[in-house]
Amino acid sequence: MQKRSQFEFVVLMAALMSIVALSIDAVLPALPMIGDYLSVSDPLDNPKLITSIFLGLGIGQLIFGPLSDSFGRKPIVYMGFLLFIVASIICITTKSFEMMLFGRVLQGIGLASPRTMCIAMVRDSYDGDYMAKILSIVVMVFILVPIVAPTLGQFLMNHYSWKFIFSFTLVFGLLVMLWFWLRQPETLKEKYRIPYRLSIFKTGTVQFFKIKSAVIYTLLSGFITGSFMVYLSTSQQIFEKQYDLAEEFPLIFASLAISVGLATFMNSQLVVRFGMRRIVHIAMWSFILTSLVFIILFRAGNNPSIEVLVTFFAIQFFTIGFLFGNLRALAMQPMGHIAGIGSALNGFISTVMAVPIANYIGSFVVDSVTPLFMGFLVCGLISIALFYYNSDKVSSVIKAA
């Protein structure tokens, strides 16, 4: 019975996060059509429909995380989903690009609730490397959604209209909410509840910034998430415009999502044996070296064949699969006493960092993918420097100097 309930918990947490993934990835094939419908003059503005939802995710976590430490995780999930319903209606009914962007930001704010609560509920229930194992499994199932989401989005767009993508996501979310309401108990223990007052966020923030490792691993998450977000926001443009593979785009996107999913599965099997820090160290160097090799080979800016590009992307995202869950778990590990606020600040800082990183690097990805890998390299080098700074030995040397 314990095994079955743990399995259901993991799948339910993944389903909560999958609403977020579906809201992002199912829209990818429809970006040009939505842009045309909303009379967007510059096609390079279309990726803002992706980065805007991430901006909302970052903002929403600041709102819902602290509240959940006082009122519990479940009520906050319901509150966020109600906001998501309103936002989805705006996206379906609007004829203005600016209002659509507002709706996407609002969707992100609403979806920040299940996303943040999922991580907080895992932290409520598990600890240490085993927490990283559970998070890896949750992330693995969560990553399976992008395998089917673009294909689903393209099917709905071709057979009905792009608006059905938003409708389908809404119905899927309602079913997950029903399951969550019926089967998931509250995970925040009464003794850890913080009486609500306006100073909660201030005191929680002060505690967060006093925990050096939490801050550094949060910054690391920001650079890695920013790298991945560049790919998410430019993938449609790369494969459909630069490579003229509009029909094949969902299949290519799915194959690369499998690479991330495989890595997160392997991480769930290896993390308890080797530890989070060692795996993160190896994965970060692999991420840097893959970027460096691509830049050396294609420094002239000429695009490689699609087979070569997909191979490099697959290797790159395989390394990212070992970073996502572990970096989040490493940041959350010392924050059991402020899991809600800690998860919120971790998500807010990493996401708000990632959006400008993605927008800036993405602006250079016009007729070549080389700038994308240059962005990967810079983010990777900054990340490894922060990782070493976090080690006690390096920190003591720097302080002594």
Largest sheet: none
- SSE pattern, N- to C-terminal: HHHHHHHHHHHHHHHH
Would you tell me the overall average pLDDT?
Answer: 85
Radius of gyration: 20 Å
- Which segments are poorly predicted (pLDDT under 50) over 5 or more consecutive residues? 393-401
Q: What is the number of E strands? A: 0
Name the quaternary structure: single chain
Beta-strand portion reads under 5%
The secondary-structure class comes to mainly alpha
Structure description:
The protein is mainly α and 401 residues long. It is built from 16 helices and no strands. It has helices at 2-25, 31-37, 48-71, 73-93, 97-125, 128-159, 163-183, 200-210, 212-242, 249-274, 276-297, 306-321, 324-332, 339-362, 370-390, 392-400. The chain is globular and about 60 Å long. The termini are far apart. Residues 393-401 have low confidence and may be disordered.
Topology:
Blueprint: H1 2-25, H2 31-37, H3 48-71, H4 73-93, H5 97-125, H6 128-159, H7 163-183, H8 200-210, H9 212-242, H10 249-274, H11 276-297, H12 306-321, H13 324-332, H14 339-362, H15 370-390, H16 392-400
Tags for this entry?
mainly alpha, 401 residues
Summarize it:
This protein has 401 residues and is mainly α.
